[in-house]
């Protein structure tokens, strides 16, 4: 008999992009809409969040966008770059939320240069960060890795094997800093799953819901499904599904939900009739799942027989790895089996009455737009 | 010292899509514009060209679109489907051009079901075609293979290994019909190049210019570079370049030039502000190279040190394999080193003054739109 209601320890999304104004005012309220209680906020803003004062200011700004009734908590991250010092790591680890007293900055995110959105300031080599990583290890900050190397003709590296080619760096970092908690973000390959399993208890791995669904065929010619790392093969998808179904405690939800204005996702909308611009522009990489996140996760896990692992995937595994408090008392998210349609788009209020062109720049199309989801959040 | 002028035996394009009215009236004159003298026309029209009378009618219609001064000759093909009989193969082989007396139908094209544009009527198994292939072998018609199998979760087949997974069929067909001339169309992988090399002299292979340039990274999020088979890795591209540079006589130009209206290449143009339609539509697969074909080939081959193989690639290898007459007397194509800019788009005359939306449906964006080509056709 299929379940009709599910109670979950309050969900956490350990990898999410909420952007900056005005986009952030549309996106931040979607965290609660999608069922998330704790959101781990990525620092690849423009400019990136590279020090403690920027991070606190950014978190204050984002928290002001939360609905008053919201139970959502935000955890900030810093962007790894040569300006980050061990002293700044100490300062980051000491920041407490003025109201809750909880840790406010959870980790440091590393982007290899040029491989994804706003990663031009990303790292080229990890060797120069030994002292920073050693201090993070002492202070208990997490290192979050975008695990891809740049494409390289000599080494035959493309978007297809960029992740597998990165895994040697994960192993090296883990060997050098065995007590440093490291998260390989948005794993997409069987090789990555295997690598994380082989590491010790200080290495975790986030898996997005869209990578539990998509393969390469789904983004071939479909910009709405194009993201980085790109979705790979059936066997890779099976490895991601299998590790979630196994309930392995170091694999958990990080949605990598990334809102891109429709105009940047679909260049011909931005170009407004200029075919040359449209043809030469690339489509932005990213899939937007925040407003439907937990119902989507329930739907996907049920589709491959892992609904009993939903709480582990969306809450308890990450809470344990990140040392986050479990739900206070009886607080739970409750899902009921009830069909809802994924909205076709979300538009900033201030742009709703504007013309097509202006609206395209303030409009975000979610993953599975227009599809039915069989699960709905009821509290 | 770099060459400043090149004389070529008249070029042939052994794989080209010129579509139907009204698109064909824009496209057919581009064959001459791109430097082609003989064009081998694909039959995946709507409906497909599946018998001799359809093919002759189609060729007549296309020839009426050739400029009066043009030296372009067209060779037709039939679409392989269960309606094709050995008797129809005999009829096809007997068709002569009313003016030149030359063979008018060169071969039969096989599309695996559902893998590319207008392939819904494609084949599922070759076994039922034994008698047709035997008759083609006797009559000297060529079998042109779109060498991909459909994606398959059980077998872990995606767009990435669809070609490599097809090669067993090429070997089987060649073993069964050793005198049947077979062309593996638009090879994209090192595996395909190796497979063709291993076959005997009756197996040839077309290679598109865009696959001599693109890799998977180039179509990740860039609909203008998305085609089937998809471009693969650096090593695959190197294998294609190497075999052209080696001058291997059974590898030759088949552009697979495929004009798609801008609106179908860029769904947001077609959807005209409807983001849900735009997001859910796929982009049409195909790269359009006809109007710049020979200058593009010269540019690419020069870029990887194979300009001395240009004539073999664009003319003599295919003429020999297909038993086409070599240039009559002193007729040559002459290229001069002179920069020209690739037009940003080509638009049907009747649609030039229409609004953005109507124009998008009658407008084709060529490969390398807006880029400079260092070679120009001067006669």
From TrEMBL, chains A, B:
The keyword Ubl conjugation does not apply. The keyword Hydrolase applies. PROSITE patterns: DIHYDROOROTASE_1, DIHYDROOROTASE_2. Keywords: Hydrolase, Metal-binding, Pyrimidine biosynthesis, Zinc. GO terms for biological process: 'de novo' pyrimidine nucleobase biosynthetic process; 'de novo' UMP biosynthetic process. InterPro entries: DHOdimr, Dihydroorotase_CS, Metal_Hydrolase. PANTHER family: DIHYDROOROTASE. This is Dihydroorotase. It comes from Acaromyces ingoldii.
């Amino acid at each position: 008999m299929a379940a009709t209601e599910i109670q979950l320890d309050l969900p956490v999304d350990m990898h999410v992009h909420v952007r900056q104004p005005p986009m952030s005012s549309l996106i931040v309220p979607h965290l609660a809409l999608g069922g998330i209680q704790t959101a781990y906020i990525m620092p690849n803003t423009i400019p990136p969040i590279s020090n403690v004062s920027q991070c606190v200011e950014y978190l204050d700004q984002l928290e002001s966008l939360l609905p008053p009734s919201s139970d959502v908590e935000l955890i900030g991250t810093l962007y790894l770059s040569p300006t980050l010092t061990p002293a700044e790591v100490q300062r980051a680890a000491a920041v407490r939320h003025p109201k809750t007293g909880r840790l406010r900055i959870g980790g440091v995110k590393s982007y290899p240069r040029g491989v994804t959105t706003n990663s031009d300031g990303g790292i080229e080599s990890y060797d120069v960060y030994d002292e920073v990583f050693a201090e993070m290890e002492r202070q208990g900050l997490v290192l979050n890795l975008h695990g891809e190397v740049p494409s390289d003709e000599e080494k035959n590296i493309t978007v297809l094997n960029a992740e597998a080619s990165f895994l040697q760096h994960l192993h090296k970092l883990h060997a050098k800093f065995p007590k440093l908690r490291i998260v390989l973000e948005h794993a997409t390959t069987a090789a990555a799953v295997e690598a994380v399993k082989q590491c010790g208890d200080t290495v975790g791995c986030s898996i997005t819901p869209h990578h539990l669904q998509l393969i390469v065929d789904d983004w071939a010619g479909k910009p709405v499904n194009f993201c980085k790392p790109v979705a790979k093969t059936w066997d890779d998808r099976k490895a991601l599904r299998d590790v979630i179904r196994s309930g392995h405690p170091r694999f958990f939800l990080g949605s990598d939900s990334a809102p891109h204005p429709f105009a940047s996702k679909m260049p011909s909308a931005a170009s407004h009739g200029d075919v040359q611009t449209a043809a030469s522009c690339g489509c932005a990489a990213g899939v937007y799942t925040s407003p439907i996140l937990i119902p989507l996760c329930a739907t996907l896990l049920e589709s491959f027989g892992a609904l009993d692992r939903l709480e582990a995937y969306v809450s308890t595994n990450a809470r344990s790895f990140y040392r986050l408090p479990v739900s206070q008392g009886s607080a739970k998210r409750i899902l009921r089996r009830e069909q809802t349609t994924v909205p076709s788009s979300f538009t900033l209020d201030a742009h709703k009455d504007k013309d097509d062109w202006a609206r395209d720049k303030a409009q975000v199309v979610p993953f599975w737009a227009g599809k039915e989801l069989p699960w709905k959040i009821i509290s």
